[in-house]
Design goal:
mainly alpha; single chain; 11 helices
Length: 244
């Protein structure tokens, strides 16, 4: 069933690539960048999953986590069909990609072992970090590319995208870049930077915002700051060993 499950996951990801791209083109100009960014993010998950990049399953699960969190909105607004559809289809992406059989096509494949030669501990750390980054990136896109973004919000997005690239390439600076993006988003969301927060989440097909305020930045910050926490102990252990 691995092939069938992957096909359904790709179908759902492809649907959202098309949906967000169409909304970007047909919606108001001020939401174009946010929806285009989401289309590119889901497109990355789609292409990576189809191409069997070793980290793509983790990233796509993270994207599924992002959409599944939107289900929490139902507690406040009740059973809104569009929000329920968005949340449950993302939950389906998350569930479809679970399991050792699916992992054997990606991080545990022979091609990955031959090319990257990861240790099991490194795979575990990277899996947690990439899932966190996959959950974060849509929040970060909405936070940074919502109407009237501030310069620091764009810096956070650049650090987040660059950090993800560095992370899957096994670069330490990728972890630091993701942590820097998380700190900017946290400081901005809490008002420490003295800049009024104007971002909001835009997830409905009509382009109507359903969550206002700094929540986008705070949600991005939570998952971004998890990455340096995940790598904190191994990095400290390495520094101690190098000094000894």
């Amino acid at each position: 069933m691995v092939g069938i499950r992957r096909a359904f996951a790709l179908l759902l990801l492809g649907f959202y690539v098309t949906q967000f791209a169409m909304t970007a083109g047909l919606g108001p100009d001020e939401t174009f960048a946010a929806y285009l960014g989401l289309a590119l993010c889901y497109g990355l998950a789609f292409v990576g999953l189809a191409a069997e990049w070793f980290w793509a399953r983790w990233f796509a699960i993270g994207v599924g986590n992002f959409g599944s969190l939107i289900l929490l909105v139902l507690i406040k607004v009740g059973m809104e069909p569009l929000i329920a559809f968005f949340g449950f289809t993302h939950l389906a992406i998350w569930l479809l990609l679970l399991g050792e059989g699916m992992a054997a096509r990606y991080e545990h494949s022979e091609a990955t072992a031959e090319r990257w030669n990861f240790q099991e501990e490194s795979l575990i750390l990277m899996r947690r970090a990439v899932k966190s980054a996959g959950t974060t990136l849509p929040f970060l896109i909405l936070y940074a590319l919502a109407p009237q973004p501030e310069g620091l919000q764009l810096v956070a997005l650049a650090l987040g995208v660059g950090g993800l690239w560095g992370l899957v390439r096994g670069r330490t600076w990728g972890v630091l870049a993701l942590g820097g993006a998380g700190f900017i988003a946290l400081a901005d969301g809490l008002g420490w930077l003295g800049v009024p927060v104007t971002s909001y989440l835009l997830i409905t097909p009509t382009g109507s915002p359903i969550i206002y305020g700094p929540l986008g930045g705070l949600m991005a910050a939570i998952f971004l700051l998890m990455v340096p926490l995940i790598y904190g102990r191994p990095m400290l252990r390495y520094l101690r060993a190098s000094r000894a």
